[in-house]
Specification:
about 725 residues; five-stranded antiparallel sheet; 23 helices; 20 strands
Length: about 725
């Protein structure tokens, strides 16, 4: 019964496996053929299960013989399909004569099984035995192990002899191909065939000791199918390092559990014999091996010696773990080693905007040659228009979309001795470019590399921004670097804001870092004549790292805003960027707001802001209008945790947004400034301009504290002037909420 269950389970597993084969290799000849072969083999397992059940439960003998014949016929046809697959692997036009030969062999198998007398004369299954009676070809035994029956010759021909004959032809083809990748894949297909033959030999020996093993003969097909599936999706030449890691990986993941399972079987069989207790304990032990394999396999596969060519997760973890507060030379070494280790590039070099009209390489590359690339290269504009910041040599050589600048792109690759480059852009401005040399293994950069680079683009942008503003010592200097950098950061923030010029509103703010440098910021972004966006908040942390993260976040917000008109979706994308691209543990607490002057409405999303106040001129009071929200950066998907709120603005209404530094500031007696004092300040100063209100609020806080500030202080005030200056609605207004 155990073997019947195993056959059914394997059949079901192969059906599930066929979906993964189909999804990974969709719409390719190899993919379609492998999907069909997988489903074909699963059908054979299922029919074999039905056959075994009919034998065990005493179905009529003719039915048992019929099902057994069908099982072996399908087994033969499957192996013919496998031989056809390896012979025509990566062949664009399939030779017609192979189809003729395939039909001749298939029909011969059908005739032999159903019309030759004595081919299968009976089937029986006892408690510890499984026998298929077949006429003997020779009275002598084969190699002293089992007699040569018609069925054994038939099985050996289709599982061993025919595939090995086809393997010889594949070997000849492999030796005559000039493609290293095709040569490697053909040799691996030959190895898969040899593995199937080896497994069949092992099963033949095992049947002498445990006849019921014969019910699982179909299992010998699975290793070859799995390896063929792996080969068909392989697009790179395996170097010695990868080949060794792959060998170790398969040894630990597959061979070791199989060896343990075999030893358990032999030990229990020796102690308990063919008893019921043996089968019960064997099933329990098998479950234990599977559970242990699942849990320990996760640990082993994370080890560097066992990593495969799918490097994306490990590469991402390594990039995000780089400590940008370290010495510049150490950061550079970490970047170079990370790219070389996981991407397998022979060289890594980065050129950044030097402010001179050129992109210049920082530090030394793998050679001492410095590079300087004009920032106005017309190829950059074309690639940015195509939204194609990741460029491989193969793409540059063949893609028609860049035909107008193909020469410039290839010249850039040749002059930098690269096979790929990644542009790091802030809107239309190139911050830097990462150049990657040819792969050490000799492979080209693949679609998998492209998907990884695209996914981690924001991480690379962070790297480029840090490199530009911290590691370029000609810009930053080595003395009092944090103080100089603080001044540059704050100046950059102030200059890049789109100050509100609409006559319907008066805007003022104060942003005072406690220690000359910090992660707080305010940004004002003009969407169109009738819509303006404001952002106020703080990234956790202090010093240069927090300030640089703030500058990067500010740039990303503007970049995402150009592609994301939906207000809530924009915040979701920013949350994802903070979570996945900024240093681990970074989070943002603040408020995103959007003012629509045409409808006198303010939309806002609270993202962990301590308070958002509104002075209502009609009732002459101050209320909190803080909506539901969640700090950004703790979860990847924040969509269910944030909500867009809106409030109607009337003439003389005032909105005050602040960070926790204002609310939580303490006096010498330990008393907090608190929300009540902020509300009182709004009432007292409501007649003053917005900028004066912000200044008075800060001065009152300083007087209250009577000591140096312990936290950064940021406050934004918006005074709505209202209908007296109402403008006409712009039918072309864009941007979503």
């Amino acid at each position: 019964m155990v073997f019947i269950i195993l056959n059914a389970a394997i059949g079901a597993s192969l059906i599930a496996f066929s979906f993964s084969v189909d999804s990974v290799r969709k719409n390719t000849y190899e993919g379609n053929a492998l999907t069909n072969m997988t489903l074909f083999l699963s059908a054979i397992f299922i029919i074999n299960t039905v056959s075994l059940i009919s034998i065990v439960f005493g179905a009529p003998r003719p039915l048992c013989k019929l099902l057994t014949r069908i099982t072996y016929m399908l087994l033969a046809w499957y192996n013919v399909s496998y031989c056809d697959f390896i012979l025509t692997y990566n062949v664009e036009k399939k030779p017609k004569f192979l189809a003729v030969i395939r039909w001749i062999i298939n029909i011969s198998a059908l005739i032999a099984l159903f019309f030759v007398s004595g081919f299968i004369s009976g089937v029986s299954m006892g408690k510890f035995s499984y026998t298929i009676a077949s006429k003997t070809v020779f009275d002598k035994v084969l190699f002293g192990m089992f007699p040569l029956t018609m069925l054994s010759v038939f099985t050996a021909f289709f599982i061993v002899i025919l595939p090995l004959f086809c393997t010889l032809m594949v070997l000849v083809r492999a030796e005559n191909t000039k493609s290293r990748l095709l040569h490697q894949n053909l040799l691996m297909l030959c190895l898969a065939t040899l593995g199937t033959a080896f497994c069949y030999a092992l099963f033949s020996v095992a049947k002498l000791y445990q006849p019921l093993i014969g019910t699982l003969t179909l299992v010998v097909m699975i290793p070859g199918l799995m390896l063929a599936s792996k080969i068909s999706s392989n697009s790179e030449v395996w170097g010695k390092s990868l080949a060794f890691r792959t060998l170790i990986r398969y040894f630990v993941i597959y061979f070791v559990p199989a060896l343990v399972e075999g030893l358990i079987y032999l030990g229990l069989r020796e102690i308990l014999g063919n008893s019921v207790a043996f089968y019960v304990l064997f099933v329990i032990a098998t479950c234990g091996v599977v559970v242990g394999w699942v849990f320990t396999g996760r640990y082993f596969t994370k080890m560097d010696i066992m990593r495969d060519s799918r490097y994306g997760d490990a590469f991402e973890e390594s990039i995000t773990s780089i400590d940008f507060t370290d010495e510049p030379s150490n950061i550079n070494k970490a970047l170079v080693s990370t790219f070389k280790k996981y991407v397998d590039c022979s060289s890594f070099r980065m050129a950044i905007d030097a402010g001179t009209g050129y992109l210049e390489s920082i530090f030394d590359g793998d050679d001492d040659e410095k590079i300087a690339i004009p920032a106005d290269n017309k190829a950059f504009d074309v690639l940015l228009n195509l939204k194609h910041p990741v460029v491989f040599r193969k793409f540059a050589e063949k893609d028609y979309s860049i035909q107008s600048v193909r020469a410039e792109v290839l010249e850039l690759l040749d002059s930098t001795k690269s096979d790929a480059f990644i542009m790091l852009n802030e809107g239309r401005r190139i911050v830097g470019i990462i150049f990657l040399g040819p792969k050490s293994s000799g492979n080209m950069f693949t679609p998998y590399d492209y998907s990884v680079f695209t996914k981690l683009y924001s991480n690379f942008f962070v790297v480029g921004y840090y490199m530009k503003n911290i590691m370029n010592e000609s810009v930053v200097g080595t003395v009092n670097r944090e103080i100089r950098m603080s001044s540059q950061i704050i100046t950059s923030i102030q200059e890049n804001m789109d100050y509100i010029t609409n006559p319907k509103i008066d805007c003022g703010y104060r942003m005072v870092p406690a220690h000359n440098i910090g992660g707080e910021f305010i940004d004002l972004i003009r969407l169109n004549d009738h819509r303006h966006m404001f952002i106020i908040g703080a990234l956790n942390g202090k010093g240069i790292a927090a300030s640089m993260s703030m500058v990067i976040l500010k740039s990303i917000i503007r970049t995402d805003l150009a592609e994301t008109p939906d207000f809530k979706v924009l915040v979701q994308k920013i949350n994802y960027f903070i979570r996945t691209s900024l240093p681990k543990g970074t989070f943002f607490a603040g408020t995103f707001g959007l003012i629509d002057f045409s409808t006198d409405t303010m939309y806002y999303i609270n993202c962990g802001s301590p308070a958002l106040f509104m002075y209502n001129s009609i009732y002459n009071n101050v209320i909190e209008i803080q909506g539901e929200g969640h700090v950004l950066g703790f979860v990847k998907d924040v969509s269910k945790l944030i909500r867009v709120k809106k409030v109607k603005l009337s003439p003389n209404d005032i909105v005050l947004a602040c960070t926790d530094g204002l609310i939580e500031a303490r006096s010498l007696r330990g008393e907090t400034f608190g929300k009540t004092r902020v509300q009182s300040q709004m009432l007292e100063n409501s007649s003053f301009p917005a900028d004066k209100m912000a200044q008075f609020t800060y001065e009152n806080l300083v007087q209250f504290s009577s000591r140096a500030l312990e936290d950064d202080i940021t406050v934004l005030i918006l005074k709505y002037k209202g209908a007296g200056n109402k403008q006409k609605n712009d039918a072309g207004s864009n941007g979503g909420v």
